[in-house]
Amino acid sequence: WLLAIGVTEWGHWLAPVSLALFVPGWRCSAGARVCATLGVVAALLMLTPLIRAVPVAHDLPMQFSAAFGEATPRSSPDARPRRAPLDVVDLFSGMTVAPISPESLVFAKRDGETLSLDVYRAHLSPDAGGTGAPGILVIHGGSWQSGDRTELSTLNRYLADRGYVVAAIDYRLGPRFAFPAALEDVRDAIRSLKANASLFGLDSSRLVLLGRSAGGQLALLAAYTFGDPAIRGVVAFYAPADLDYAYEHPANPAVINSRAILESYLDGSPDRVPERYRAASPIQFVGPLTPPTLLIHGGRDELVTPLQSERLAARLVEARRPSFFLRLPWATHGCDANVAGPCGQITTYAIEHFLAAVIW
Questions:
Q1: How far is residue 152's CA from residue 337's CA, in Å, rounded to a whole number?
Q2: How far is CA 135 from CA 75, 86, 233, 255, in A?
């Protein structure tokens, strides 16, 4: 799985290496010609994700406008939004991200655990009218058992540099703490962020939740069940949205023991605690007041099947709620680890435009 992330999101770097290793000796011998041929084939395979990303990037602006209307992403004098969903130059030069250092705040102490959040902000002037900047609450992944608020912080800095107050949070982890402990921690983090809004220059009436994997499940569930009008939207990367379905259709056990993880998180199987599986499944709470939703999932995800996002997207369409499902056919779980890769670029573009549509 981790190798798949490397090949699919850094393949444009590996392709020239394949050619450099094998092509120079193609005239030396029959064996060298075989190696050269294999090098060319390897290079083409390494470029396949990028080739598959091109049509997704081409169609994205029009699809997004159809889903959420025209919206201009926020920018600052030194930090402009992405020009296009996919930029070949950025694949090799990287994306410019300001070196913003976060400010930490303890937001809760529960059961001997001290929970903190890191706030990223660029100290820009407030919006017209003196209100603060909109906020983004980031919830990390890790199968509800691992990870912390420092994960994949490049996007946090990128968005903070463009005028958002970004708060990445910790939450209580399993197997010591089962559901709904982590969800309660998300609620506490939102409350603390609002209480300290003036300290961080935050407009506490404009928040978007963003989560990855297990954090995506928490972000969706919080957005769909808290009934907080300040939550203007939610972004979920490769998130399990129906935990009953996840148990009935487990991942490849050679990759991850998803049933054991679910039993740890929910303190039992669906047969023993069916109410917990329903209560932890965002798909169960889609309704007429569900906030706008951006779902992102890779077509090659071996840990959380893309059917999770597909099924939730269908339920959102059925409920006539503003939503968009961004499917990345080449990508796997954690594809946004490389913010300058095909997945990283396209998803950053989508997030910027989603934020512009729902939070301004």
A1: 6
A2: 15, 26, 11, 35
Return phi, psi of residue 250, to 5°. Answer: -70, 160
100-116 CB burial, b ≥16 within 10 A, e <16: bebeebebbeeeeeebb
What is the spatial distance between Cα 171 and Cα 109, in angstroms, rounded to a whole number?
A: 10
Q: Which pair of structure tokens corresponds to residue 51? A: 């080739």
Amino acid at 6: G
For 66, the enclosing helix (H) or strand (E) is: helix 30-68
Give the span between the Cα atoms of 22 and 36, in whole angstroms: 5
Which tens digit of pLDDT belongs to each residue from 242-254? 999 999 999 999 9
Judging by beta carbons within 10 Å of its beta carbon (0-12, 13-18, 19+), is residue 259 exposed, middle or buried? middle
The DSSP code for 97 is -
| Euclidean distance between CA atoms 60 and 81, whole angstroms | 15
Q: Which two tokens stand for residue 13?
A: 């770097």
Name beta bridge partners: 235: 210, 294
Q: What span, in angstroms and rounded, lies between the C-alpha atoms of 219 and 291?
A: 12
pTM of the complete model: 0.94
Q: In the chain, where does DSSP find H-type helix? A: 2-22, 30-68, 88-93, 154-160, 181-195, 197-200, 214-225, 243-248, 258-266, 274-279, 307-318, 342-359
pLDDT in tens, 267-296: 999 999 999 999 999 999 999 999 999 999
Q: Which of 64, 15, 61 is nearest to 40 (CA)?
A: 15
What does the alpha-carbon distance between residue 343 and residue 90 come to, in Å, rounded to a whole number? 12
The residues, ordered by sequence, that sit 6+ positions from 85 with a Cβ below 8 Å of its Cβ are 56, 57, 58, 60, 61, 345, 346, 349, 350
